[in-house]
Amino acid sequence: MFDFSQLHPSLAQQLKTLGYHTSTPVQAEAIPAVLEGGDVMAGAQTGTGKTAAFALPLLHKLLTESVEQPSSPRVMVVVPTRELAQQVLDKIIAYAALTPLRCVALYGGVSIKPQVARLASGVDVIVGTPGRLLDHLYNKTFNPDQIQTLVMDEADRMLDMGFMPDIKKLLTRLPPQRQTLFFSATYPKQVMNLAYKLLSSPTHINIDAPNSAAHTVEQRVHPVDRRKKRELLSFLIGSRNLQQVLVFTKTRQSAEALVKELKLDGLVAEAIHGERTQAARNRALEGFKNGDVRVLVATDVAARGIDIPQLACVFNYELPHQLEDYVHRIGRTGRAGQNGLAISLVSLEEEGMLQAIETLLDSRISQEWISGYEPDLTAEVEHRQKRGGRGGDKRRLKKQLAKKAGFKRR
């Protein structure tokens, strides 16, 4: 356990005001390691306090070190999405409220001019997405030579989103002699390769096993006929009186279509995905946070940065393309030590993905069959035959489907 009173007095006082009394496991291990100045490679789920784990010691160092050029940024935090950039910035501003330190978020989808003006006034910490950070570097709106620490937050997501070329360009413009902090909830091979290139003799911090789900999240699967998914979703929201529900889909088309159907069911719903403007995304997210929007339907790209501490439940309306995204999705609930529930509505055609997710997690996810919504095996047989799938004896095919590991009653 790390004692926050060891930090700069301005930080320690503000943390008391914010109600930070006990460090989380990732904070207890990461803060001393960051303060020592070495590289850090940390594996921790979202909602475990990892932003404070790197922000607090870095703010402490900024406050206690002498500076020759106070107008140049000394810390750069790179994140995959605009929402996460704003979330991280908001937390850093809250921690540094009693200090003279200045911070700015740099991301696309909004005018670059206010960001340029903010940089010109002098900042200590910049938080940004790879593309917009490169825009500023190309335009020479800030000097990267004074960057002392680079933080890669949610590195796995950045690689999934195809940011590797931008990241490589970004790294060539930063001082080679720097501290690098690498945070990722999952560590597939590509992420490990990047970490090995960036880090020098890092301190390894593993709060959870790689690719594991947060222990505070109860996971549940409802096998469902694919044609009744939306009906079951509305039924569960209404019958359980769920007031703040985050729902994940695979594509923006699915998100928009689902929102239209939910509105017809009388639910106040909004979609958030990469094709919506930043202003529209901000309005939808703000409405969700203040309770005006009951159901927020999101794609994986847009969901990064959604930080609702008391979010009790998330739904996987469709299982994700990437296995690791399942871990990130359910990490939106059960945050900050709170209990959460993650419900996946899984049709027969998704059974292979469900089994792959269980293999990734090295555990079985409990199932609950709801009367009236069970998968229709006969309809599935006919569907597969019509699309040119396996033919032959319907009884045999139906029996084989029923025996699929992901859907036999447990």
What is the compact description of this entry?
The chain has 17 helices and 14 strands.
What are the key terms here?
alpha/beta, 42% helix, Rossmann fold, seven-stranded parallel sheet, 15% strand, 17 helices, single chain, 14 strands, 410 residues
Descriptive account of the structure:
- The chain is α/β, with parallel strands linked by helices.
- The chain folds into two domains: 4-206, P-loop containing nucleotide triphosphate hydrolases (Rossmann fold); 217-375, Rossmann fold (3-Layer(aba) Sandwich).
- It has 17 helices and 14 strands.
- Strands 3-4-2-5-6-1-7 form a seven-stranded parallel β-sheet, sandwiched between helices.
- It is globular.
Structural class: alpha/beta
Gross geometry:
globular
Q: Tell me the distance between the termini.
A: 41 Å
Number of domains as seen in the coordinates: 2
Q: What characterizes the major β-sheet?
A: 7 strands, parallel
Beta-strand residue fraction: 15-25%
The order of strands across the largest sheet is 3-4-2-5-6-1-7
- The CATH architecture of the largest domain can be named as 3-Layer(aba) Sandwich
Give the overall average pLDDT: 85
Helix count, DSSP H or I runs of 4 or more residues: 17
Number of E-state strands = 14
Helicity, in percent?
40-55%
Main CATH class of the largest domain: Alpha Beta
Please compute the radius of gyration using only Cα atoms.
23 Å
Low-confidence stretches: none
CATH-derived topology of the largest domain = Rossmann fold
CATH homologous superfamily placement of the largest domain: P-loop containing nucleotide triphosphate hydrolases
